[in-house]
Amino acid sequence: MNKRVNILQLEPESYKAMSGLEQYVTNSGIDKLHYELIKLRASQINGCAYCLDMHSRDARKLGETEQRIYVLSAWRETDFFTPEEQAILTLTEEVTNISHGGVSDQTYQQAAAFFDEHYLAKIIMAITVINAWNRIAISTHMKPKKVE
């Protein structure tokens, strides 16, 4: 695999800006497990191994079960996720796949039934941030380190 740019080394101010967005979401009051589910589901859709590795570990540290992590890509086929989490996952999928028709009114209303406008805004920002990180990691070929 050809070497790609290391944005952190070459343009540290860009990482500082991205880290600022990350810190905003992390400190916004969004539930930490909700945020990890968002990160994992968006990273699955985007095919970002680096982020999947990192955020599956982070989710486990927060108490997320291995079983829920394993089935997350097929979450609709289980009853492992609460209705609130299902609304978050649906919104995550539609925002991540925004070019496939945007976010439907049904999906937005489903999420709005569970969350106030402030929390909904935080969810959308969380989805936006992980999608940006996925694009950075994938385009620069960031790879997870193999654990022995």
Automatic annotation (TrEMBL):
Coiled coil: none
SUPFAM superfamilies on file: AhpD-like
Domain Carboxymuconolactone decarboxylase-like stretches: 12-94
Record Gene3D superfamilies: AhpD-like (1.20.1290.10)
PANTHER family, A to Z: 4-CARBOXYMUCONOLACTONE DECARBOXYLASE FAMILY PROTEIN (AFU_ORTHOLOGUE AFUA_6G11590), CYTOPLASMIC PROTEIN
Name of the protein described by the UniProt record: Carboxymuconolactone decarboxylase family protein
Native source species: Mucilaginibacter ximonensis
